[in-house]
Design a protein that fits this description.
The protein is an all-alpha fold. It is 59% helix and 0% strand. It binds iron/sulfur cluster.
Length: 211
Amino acid sequence: MKLREFAQEVYEILCKEYPNAKCMLNSKSPLELLIATQLSAQCRDERVNKVTRIMFPKFRDVYDYANTEPRKIEKMIKSLGLYKVKAKNIVSSCKRIAEVYNGQVPDNMEDLLTLDGVGRKTANLILGEVYGQPAYVVDTHVKRVCKRIGITYGTAPDYIEKELRRVLKPETSNHFCHLIVNHGRKYCKAINPLCMTCPLNQKCLMHFEER
Ligand code: SF4
């Protein structure tokens, strides 16, 4: 079976298993999603949501963030780790959005990558969630699960992104990544994956290799 067909089968199985799979970061605007994603580096989405629930109402728009001292944001996000860098990146990226992009979160990869604290993972998430473009969000779950299943053989995020671009239908790619995150949390855990009860165990490369 070709890898594209295989990926489509995996996608269909996961769609049934996780009918509500979606981005778990709470936000009410493209800017809020960008900031929530910057805050989520090495941190669980639930913890980010807890912090942003209090922080977001304190800022009206990108200009508010751009004109704020990073120290003020540091205090609000301290519980998330890497808070000094994250606060600095939020202020500087908002300054750039205000000055260069007319206050709008960019809608293309090239411009998104010019913002501090925005790598390909964050940029892909914005493109998929905000602008409805094909997106390939390679986080720790996507890296691990796609390799185990046999959809990719690489380990570097950029390489995996290229592989996913090759095998996934563009219109399903963003949703596919959310499904894989759900699967990584529920069954395909980093330690002791629950292969015996996993709905992919008749398809998964790692499960076959272990038999
Ligand atoms: S069979 Fe095991 S390794 Fe494969 S996807 Fe399921 S939990 Fe992960």
